[in-house]
């Protein structure tokens, strides 16, 4: 439910640093935090500006981790430095349950100096973030290699004008699902089928190792132009959009 959606896309509600005492998401609710790392800058160099043309991945990764812990700490009423994140066997990030109550599930996605963080207190969550206007290059070849047969066939029947958009939406949805389930990308994208028709709402149609009706999918476009996707294993899904700002 995108109550703050305009013709140009979703306009997240701005929240200023420092963050304190964030209310946990309600049942079936997902809090989505959009972070422009260039604008947020480095907490270690408050007056230094980041050059987006020279923004090394190592620095981006460090900032993503810092702001993730800051956000999670605001929900847990802890300083960010006291939030401990571990990883499941296949790489899904999790709150360290030996140190924190399992109150939250979360997921992150990165795209060209920006970051999306999804937070849920009910159900497994996965998010994906894609740059606006992204071109896949060879969408049908990629679909036939990685997607299910049904998805590849459906995309193969589309006109070129729809193909790129439909492929990107399907890709984002599938990334979100595998990240939520914690399986990792390898050999998983072909094991379930999502809706590829743009006139239909996003949903999982079939799934080899789970009940597709147990999942909910949403896609959205931000005012920044990014395409986002959210997968939640819960009967209900309501989105609340926020952006983190310094002032």
Characterise this structure.
This protein has one domain (5-245): 4'-phosphopantetheinyl transferase domain (Ribosomal Protein L22, Chain A), CATH 3.90.470.20. The protein contains five helices and 14 strands. It is globular. The protein has a five-stranded mixed β-sheet with strand order 3-14-4-8-7. The protein is of the alpha+beta class. It starts with a strand and ends with a strand.
Question: How would the blueprint of this fold be written?
Answer:
Elements lengths: L4 E2 L2 E2 L2 E4 L12 E8 H4 L16 H20 L8 E3 L5 E3 L9 E7 L2 E7 L4 E6 L8 H8 L2 H8 L3 H22 L10 E3 L9 E4 L8 E6 L5 E6 L5 E8 L2
Parallel strand pairs: 3-14, 4-14
Antiparallel strand pairs: 1-2, 4-8, 5-6, 7-8, 9-13, 10-11, 12-13
- Secondary structure: helix percent: 25-40%
Total separate domains: 1
Q: At the third CATH level, what is the topology name? A: Ribosomal Protein L22, Chain A
CATH A-level architecture: Alpha-Beta Complex
Biggest β-sheet strands, sense, barrel: 5 strands, mixed
Number of E-type strands:
14
Provide keyphrases for this structure.
247 residues, alpha+beta, 5-stranded mixed sheet, 14 strands
Short description:
The protein is an alpha+beta fold. The chain has helices spanning 37-40, 57-76, 139-146, 149-156, 160-181, and strands at 5-6, 9-10, 13-16, 29-36, 85-87, 93-95, 105-111, 114-120, 125-130, 192-194, 204-207, 216-221, 227-232, 238-245.
